[in-house]
Design a protein that fits this description.
- The protein is mainly beta.
- The chain has five helices and 33 strands.
- The strands form seven sheets. The protein has a seven-stranded mixed sheet, with no helix packed on it.
- A hairpin with a 2-residue loop joins strand 15 and strand 16.
- The termini are far apart.
């Protein structure tokens, strides 16, 4: 058969079977006891928390109608999707839209172009950490890997206080550092990890296990002792098979792995989910928290306990040892953008954070509307305001991000509007390390040796990367998706909520010629008194009259 004809049949098949999947989310406050420890208020959907997972097939369009019955604006971000030609559907409030105001509704049209493991979450004032989050699975129509069934495991951290109270504590004037840590409870598939339901295995079958971290702050390790895992996907990007014993998930990361069941059903096995953070005190039972579940072959079968080995003896997933299945070579570097995670203590002694020269703050006009209305000046990053920290990327320019982390804690960096190739990881120069490297309790002489590692063959791509302490990573992406895309740390609210974000404005000149923002989004802004044209404050040119006071860094403060 002619290959072009075969491809056309496949594409036609996609068109014929694609569906519009309608879903309604009525977002309200919900009283919950989901961790079994603390009764507290959460943000739920249709009267419930956790929010049920959402499934569509590749090529389908999810029509997600959101009714906001909170007392504050909200928005929904479909984490990991590009939204080609529809950047206004990205859901980042005051970036690509105004928030949906209380009492109003909006329908997101989310096209499932890329199969994979994603999630939906609130993207206004860090309401993701208060429960507004759900797995979002786009199933392959034609998977390159064979398996019999799927298993979904989604992981969360759950705190006893709501985000607004925590943010008030974090950004309280008069403090030189973050507040004392609060210890979270780990949730596995929506509830306390100690109450996990068994995973049902049938002897000889192959299972695709999808693991999604919807954590706001804490990291997770996932292992299946007695079973090898072959990773086949990370963050929606299909990979070549990569055999591992386990993988670490930074907040917002996802993996799919194939696990082949044993030929015998004589024994059941244990799987492990360990929630931890290296940047808060180690206290047994609080950090880390170890949760186990049952891989059940037969209800009456005994458990086969595997020999306990240290983490350093296991093979862990590593982005630089993985390869994207699409075979895309490393992009060239047309331009390098240098970002650095730093603390920023203001003269009011407020503990901000920054990736660029200033902490990120929402503009008064959504950045997409500035890009659409400023004509030729939209190519000038200054029009987006000093605290949007905007970088304007011409169409199809290949950008390398050199992301430095001179701090003693990791950062989980996510990019909207697509994904990046992971090119290199290595140590930050010791002269650049923060003094002292808090919150770790050792001197600069104790900073561990960190080798330089670089991709081989075909680099792996993903939309969220873990940047270890005292390290840098090099990432590359092509500006082939005109739009306004946040790049931010996904540790909420302590990092992103304190300003650890920047904005990539890709091809605003092309946007002005090709994009039409729905009238409904303009009207939604108008009803809230939010301007939809002009620079970051709604003026023309570089007139920033009315700009909120830009914080000034405290000279001589000890960074954290």
């Amino acid at each position: 058969m002619n290959i072009l004809f075969f491809i056309s049949l496949v594409l036609l098949g996609h068109v014929c079977v694609a569906e519009y999947v309608k879903l309604t989310w009525n977002i309200t406050y919900v009283d919950t006891f989901r961790d079994g420890i603390v009764h507290r208020r959460a943000k739920g959907v249709n009267g419930q928390v956790p929010i049920p997972p959402v499934y569509i097939n590749q090529g389908d369009t999810l029509l997600l109608t959101v009714h906001n019955n909170l007392d504050m604006p909200t928005s929904i971000h479909s984490h990991g999707l590009r939204h080609d030609g529809a950047t206004f559907m990205d859901g980042a409030a005051m970036v690509t839209q105004c928030g949906i105001p209380p009492g109003e509704s909006f329908t997101y049209e989310i096209y499932g172009a890329q199969a994979g493991s994603y999630w939906l979450h609130g993207h206004r004032k860090d309401d993701v950490a208060d429960g507004l989050r759900a797995p979002f699975i786009i199933r392959d129509r034609y998977s390159p890997y064979e398996y019999d069934e799927e298993v979904l495991i989604y992981l969360e951290d759950w705190y006893p206080t709501e985000v607004p109270a925590k943010m008030a504590e974090i950004l309280a004037p008069g403090s030189i550092g973050p507040p004392a840590p609060t210890f979270a409870t780990g949730l596995v598939n929506g509830f306390n990890g100690n109450d996990s339901r068994p995973i049902q295995f049938v002897a000889g079958k192959r299972y695709r296990i999808r693991v999604i971290s919807m954590s706001s702050t804490m990291y997770w390790r996932f292992t299946t002792p007695g079973h090898k895992m072959e990773i086949i996907e990370a963050d929606g990007i299909t990979s070549e098979p990569c055999e591992v014993d386990g993988f670490t998930l930074a907040p917002a990361q996802r993996y799919s792995a194939i696990v082949t069941a044993h030929e015998s059903s004589d024994f059941n096995f244990i799987y492990n989910c360990t929630m931890y953070a290296d940047f808060i005190p180690f206290i047994p039972g609080l950090n880390p928290r170890i949760y186990t579940g049952l891989i059940e072959y037969r209800q009456d079968a005994p458990i086969k306990h595997m020999e306990i080995v240290g983490d350093d003896q296991l093979v862990w997933a590593d982005d630089l040892n993985m390869h994207a299945l699409n075979g895309e070579p490393a992009l060239p570097m047309d331009r390098q953008v240098v970002l650095e995670t730093r603390a920023f203590i203001s003269t009011e002694r407020i503990n901000f954070r920054k990736l660029g020269s200033l902490p990120y703050t929402e503009p008064l006009v959504p950045s997409l509307f500035t890009a659409m209305s400023m004509g030729e000046q939209a190519m000038d990053p200054r029009v987006y305001g000093p605290q949007a920290q905007a970088y304007v990327i011409p169409l199809n320019q290949s950008v390398e991000i050199l992301l430095k982390n001179p701090q003693g804690q990791p950062h989980s960096q996510h990019q909207h509007g697509g994904w990046f190739q992971i090119i290199e990881r290595g140590p930050v120069d010791r002269s650049e390390l923060e003094q002292p490297p808090l919150p770790l309790n050792f001197s600069l002489a104790d900073v561990p040796f960190i080798p330089v590692q670089r991709y081989t063959g075909v680099p792996m791509s993903r939309d969220t990367v873990d940047v270890p302490p005292f390290s840098y990573v090099k990432l590359r992406f092509r500006g082939d998706n005109p739009g306004v895309h946040l790049h931010h740390c996904h540790l909420n609210p302590t990092h992103s909520g304190a300003g650890l974000s920047i904005t990539f404005v890709v091809a605003p000149d092309v946007l002005q010629k090709t994009l039409r923002i729905p009238d409904e989004l303009y009207e939604m802004c108008a009803r809230q008194g939010i301007k939809t044209e002009g620079n970051a404050v709604g003026n023309w040119g570089l007139d920033f009259t009315g700009l909120p006071t830009v914080p000034v860094e405290l000279v001589g403060s000890s960074p954290r």
